[in-house]
Amino acid sequence: MPNKQKEQLTIVIDFDSTFTKVEALDELADIALLGNPKQAEIVSKIREITDKGMAGEIGFADSLRDRVALLSANKIHIEQLIKFLKGKISDSFKRNKAFIQENADSILIVSSGFKDFIVPVVEELGIAEENVYANTFTYDAEGNISGYDQENLLSKDGGKVLLLKSLELEGEVYAIGDGYTDYEMRESGLANKFYAFTENVSRQNVTEKADFVVPSLDEFLYINGLSRAQSYPKSRIKVLLLENVHPKAVQAFKKEGFQVELLKGALDEEELIEKIKDVSILGLRSKTNLTKKVLEHPNASRLMCVGAFCIGTNQIDLAECEKRGIAVFNAPYSNTRSVVELSIGLMIMLTRNIVEKSNRMHAGVWDKSATNSYEIRGKKIGLVGYGNIGTQISVLAEALGMEVYFYDIVDKLALGNAKKCNTLKELLSQVDFVSLHVDGRKSNTNIIGEEQFSWMKENVIFLNLSRGHVVEISALVNAIKSGKVWGAAVDVFPYEPKTNDEEFVNDLRGLPNVILTPHIGGSTEEAQANIGEFVPSKLLQFMNNGSTYGSVNFPELQLPPLENAHRLLHIHQNVPGILAKINNVFAKYSVNIIGQYLKTTEKTGYVITDISKEYAEEIAKELKEIDNTIKFRMLY
Ligand SMILES: NC(=O)C1=CN([C@@H]2O[C@H](COP(=O)(O)OP(=O)(O)OC[C@H]3O[C@@H](n4cnc5c(N)ncnc54)[C@H](O)[C@@H]3O)[C@@H](O)[C@H]2O)C=CC1
Ligand SMILES: O=C(O)CCC(=O)C(=O)O
């Protein structure tokens, strides 16, 4: 973007918990006291003093003196600390290295910490030693810290104010920091504005005094119209994650600087309409329905992409999302193995009547007998749906000595010795186990009902780990009660409780040799951690560089990284002539196109154009105004 840098602006930046994520003296204590039996006690004492100082509860000079006295550190520890701190530079500072380097002359680091470790760290982003104002340690002959230069203004109470006064800066002075002493520069009138920096720490007594609260450096740069790494600060972009997705997902978005909210349970339509307000990225699992009604509500107007933290996407109105230029991603393989293992385990449990035996044991009944216990080896399993899950079960079941049959609406290659059936009836009428692994499309509603149970063999074992609406529950209940179905395992239900606090109500409750599980086919630590990484990575690629590779409803494009260019993303209805109109705008403004990518589906077109950094601001406006445009955004 054009650099609207202000004339004579000096930016005064704090070091601890601002430039870096941590309080350096606390970390130095950790390093220096390693192996000391009193380490925890001393470090906690130092942290307590730091916090009191930062909150303005004790004078700074006292806080510094007390902490240094507790340290017992030497030069070797300082070297270790520098290495550590270089890895702890705040994410938004790292992201905006270009701004910091270009403006290093007008940036001052003003800290009550110590130059000994601050200078090498800030130099990483191009800030020179002469722009660092901080304390200095004194050392004894062995290199142990013996104290600090007590003449330094920054070692005194109100040190930052004294220092700033002595500098006699001209022009505007903006101070950025997380502590009360940073605010004091504003209070004294020496800084024109104070920005409370909350990326790492947020203190109420500081934020409430600030002119602006900035969750990242991007936000500071955005507010002041300065050049920055993010076109729109991510701290202004809301991510809503539902259904207790894995903490890794929360971390992934937070690390990128987004505003993240995580809710434990699912939301119903009305609740979602309420919560989706201003949300750009939505993450959900199988229980939250993202319907047309939600999508067309004005509250959903900022929604850009959706992550299904699962395989199934039947809970999302994919067509409506596409129509609105919202890209949807899922995790097509991350929990496959978990469902497969559970299905195999359930088959064995049912065939051996284990649940009943276990329940009786808990009631004190020892019933050692082989009655109603069988092996699965040599039995026939029928897989309805031969996709990723169905085929993996096929391979494992065959390895266990089962004969595998499958039926799929799509022509699928048989793995191993599995036998393809041409109709559902052909499959159901000859197998001992029926296991459903179809997807949850609407047309699969009640594909197993009274008639289909009537085709099955007597004493069949029945499993549904696909979707609840695929099976007519009353028909299954009748089949179990009549003895047609000898055992059943059901993991998915037409209605599932929204949270763990809601009662599970279903006619399958209390029936013999029926294992009921709360939709946990994919709920293993491994699967959830995989999903928690995979889905955010797709959503972040979409947000950060426009890639839609792996999207389930959008033209798929894997884009190269954005380097030294602006990227213009234009989503439109797939009607003739849009590309020409887009390029006419570029031609009109003599824009140099570095790269252009186009992909369409039947209904939607997605054109990505990388242009050189000099451009006229009217271009974006004209591109947005092209007829049939659905969404437009710009990355740089
Ligand atoms: N219980 C749980 O926690 C989990 C449940 N699932 C469910 O399992 C489903 C299957 O997962 P994947 O195998 O990964 O999906 P997939 O898309 O690879 O396979 C589904 C297969 O079912 C076939 N199919 C669809 N309708 C059919 C019908 N009426 N008759 C016969 N075949 C039909 C499709 O052609 C496809 O081959 C998911 O869509 C999801 O609903 C997935 C993960 C966890
Ligand atoms: O874990 C979940 O919430 C849903 C799992 C599932 O059914 C899926 O992956 O499709």
UniProtKB/TrEMBL annotation:
The EC number(s) attached to this protein equal 1.1.1.399, 1.1.1.95
Q: Which domain of life is it from?
A: Bacteria
Provide this UniProt record's keywords sorted from A to Z: NAD, Oxidoreductase
From the UniProt record, give the pathway where this protein acts: Amino-acid biosynthesis; L-serine biosynthesis; L-serine from 3-phospho-D-glycerate: step 1/3
A Gene Ontology annotation in the biological process aspect, one of them, is: L-serine biosynthetic process
Enzyme class (EC, first level): oxidoreductase
Record's catalysed reaction(s): (R)-2-hydroxyglutarate + NAD(+) = 2-oxoglutarate + NADH + H(+); (2R)-3-phosphoglycerate + NAD(+) = 3-phosphooxypyruvate + NADH + H(+)
| Domain ACT: residue ranges | 567-636
Q: Which CDD domains match?
A: ACT_3PGDH, PGDH_3
Q: Name a GO molecular-function annotation.
A: NAD binding
Q: Known Gene3D superfamilies for this protein?
A: 3.30.70.260, HAD superfamily/HAD-like, NAD(P)-binding Rossmann-like Domain, Phosphoserine phosphatase, domain 2
Homology family = Belongs to the D-isomer specific 2-hydroxyacid dehydrogenase family.
Describe the function of this protein.
Catalyzes the reversible oxidation of 3-phospho-D-glycerate to 3-phosphonooxypyruvate, the first step of the phosphorylated L-serine biosynthesis pathway. Also catalyzes the reversible oxidation of 2-hydroxyglutarate to 2-oxoglutarate.
Q: Which PANTHER family match?
A: D-ISOMER SPECIFIC 2-HYDROXYACID DEHYDROGENASE CATALYTIC DOMAIN-CONTAINING PROTEIN-RELATED, D-ISOMER SPECIFIC 2-HYDROXYACID DEHYDROGENASE FAMILY PROTEIN (AFU_ORTHOLOGUE AFUA_1G13630)
Could you identify this protein by its name?
Answer: D-3-phosphoglycerate dehydrogenase
* Species, as recorded: Sandaracinomonas limnophila
